[in-house]
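Weekly structure sync, notes
Attendees: PL (lead), two postdocs, one rotation student
Agenda item 3: pending single-chain targets
PL asked that the sequence for the first pending target be pasted directly into the notes so everyone works from the same version. It is reproduced below exactly as submitted, 95 residues in total.
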Amino acid sequence: MPISVTELLESFPPDLRLPLARLVDALKEELQATKSDFIELRTVVRELAEAQRQTELQVRELAEAQRQTELQVRELAEAQRRTEHDLEDLKGVVR
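Predicted structure, written out during the meeting:
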């Protein structure tokens, strides 16, 4: 069973107890700040992970949109070639 800080301080000479108690309090305060910083950091990391997930989803959606655009451009180019061919055929008929 862990020994309490009070019991531990009582094992020191009386003239050292107050400085040691202050040291313990200062260390507790620093550790508490570190703990709250760590909790805040965990929250920020969680938020960043979610933002990254959303970014990856958007990149996939953009990649799919790009693929669709490229397909449509190819279809338009093919339609343009057919139109040019049909115009050439019509020129031959008109002459």
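Discussion points:
- The mean pLDDT is 93.
- The CA atoms of residues 46 and 67 lie 32 Å apart.
Action: rotation student to compare against the earlier draft before next sync.
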